[in-house]
Design goal:
Number of strands: 13
Number of helices: 11
Structural class: alpha/beta
Radius of gyration: 21 Å
């Protein structure tokens, strides 16, 4: 696969190349649990989650995402703990890894979503993200009227993102005073009502959580139409389709564009094709919506190097996390780091800083006379 390079612009983009990994379940393949290195019931225990997050951070990944849905997947084995809880659990034990839970905005209350994510940003010291997804099949679970059609679903998601952003700004950075001598702990003039009125909900505000350390939690998403995203996750069946998706996301004005990529690697004792054949013998994985790679670590390094000329990073979905993550940590990420294509996050940096996103100004601060 060949991708034309883009000269000096590609060199700039390489310096921004972020490496993400999806850590939900056992891997993208529904049969991945058969090749996991632990008993199936341990998936919901803390040790497996903690070990995988530590391995991803030590390898040099920029962020990890945690998939979620309030309704069970047709191919999922067992259950899952909600994504924000998982991210919050590992927050204190990590120092550089961005934590990006999926939270569907179709029916959930955006006031509660914004509070959860702001709290995660505090727990992680500025490393929280939000993958704003849709979950249109969960209306009955929420006791809500179903959203009908793509336009209604998109409207709810876009409105929820807007409300969350307003709520994160509803506290100015200096709203908390902590003047013990004067008995003053909060400057009420630095709190703001957001006064949002949408089609299906309204929110007055302000938030119950002070402004997050990042100012705004980093918002990831798939749909760039009227999205308000910081990071778009795009992909296609082929490299050409993927590059077209990258271009369209840039034209839509999304600051950062990352490629979603499914990966199955050759490992000691089994090639990627052999592993996939064994897994597909029981249930065939459906990864048609994403660019797919299977093969050697050297070929994956070459593909990622070429993608770095066009995209701001990738998010990798592994066939079997317990088998593919060690191969990435031992061979792929070290090569990318040595080549200067990717950079290891440093302790104390925020997810925004690692994605080269500025800390946004508070939209309400200008309303006051200083």
């Amino acid at each position: 696969m060949s991708i034309e390079r883009m000269g000096s612009e590609s060199e700039v983009r390489k310096s921004l190349f972020a490496l993400g990994i999806e850590l939900d379940g056992e891997g993208y393949h529904p049969g991945a649990w058969r090749r996991a290195d632990h008993e199936p019931e341990r998936l919901l225990g803390p040790q497996v989650l903690r070990a995988r997050v530590a391995a991803a951070e030590n390898a040099g990944f920029t962020f990890a995402s945690f998939d979620d849905s309030i309704t069970p997947s047709a191919t999922a084995i067992g259950g899952r703990i909600d994504a924000v809880t998982r991210a919050g659990f590992v927050a204190a034990g990590t120092s550089t890894l961005g934590l990006v839970p999926v939270v569907a905005a179709t029916y959930a209350e955006p006031f509660h979503i914004s509070s959860q994510l702001a709290s995660l940003d505090y727990a992680s010291r500025g490393r929280a993200g939000w993958l704003a997804a849709d979950d249109p099949g969960s209306a009955r679970t929420w006791g809500a009227a179903p959203r009908v059609g793509d336009d209604e679903i998109r409207r709810e998601r876009v409105n929820s993102i807007e409300v969350a952003r307003r709520l994160w700004d509803s506290w100015e950075d200096d709203a908390v005073v902590r003047d013990y001598a004067a008995g003053k702990f909060l400057n009420r003039d630095r709190l703001h009502h957001i006064d949002f009125i949408g089609e299906t909900f309204s929110v007055k505000g302000p938030s119950i959580v002070p402004r997050p350390p990042q100012g705004q939690v980093v918002v990831f998403g798939y749909d760039t139409a009227g999205s308000g995203l910081d990071v778009a996750l795009v992909s296609g069946v082929t490299v050409a389709e993927t590059l077209t998706a990258v271009r369209l996301a840039r034209e839509a004005g999304v600051p950062r564009v990352l490629v979603d990529l499914t990966v199955a690697l050759d490992i000691p004792g089994a090639s990627a094709s052999e592993r996939l054949a064994e897994l597909d013998a029981d249930t065939v994985a459906d990864h048609a919506a994403r660019l797919h790679f299977s093969g050697s670590t050297a070929d994956l390094i070459a593909l990622l190097t070429e993608l770095s000329a066009h995209a701001d990073g990738v998010r990798l979905h592994l066939a079997v996390i317990d088998e593919d993550l060690p191969a990435l940590a031992h061979y792929v990420l070290p090569a990318l780091l040595r080549a200067g294509i990717a950079h290891r996050p440093v302790p104390g940096s925020t997810l925004r800083a690692n994605l080269r996103l500025p800390r946004p100004a508070n939209r309400y601060a200008k309303e006051l006379t200083r």
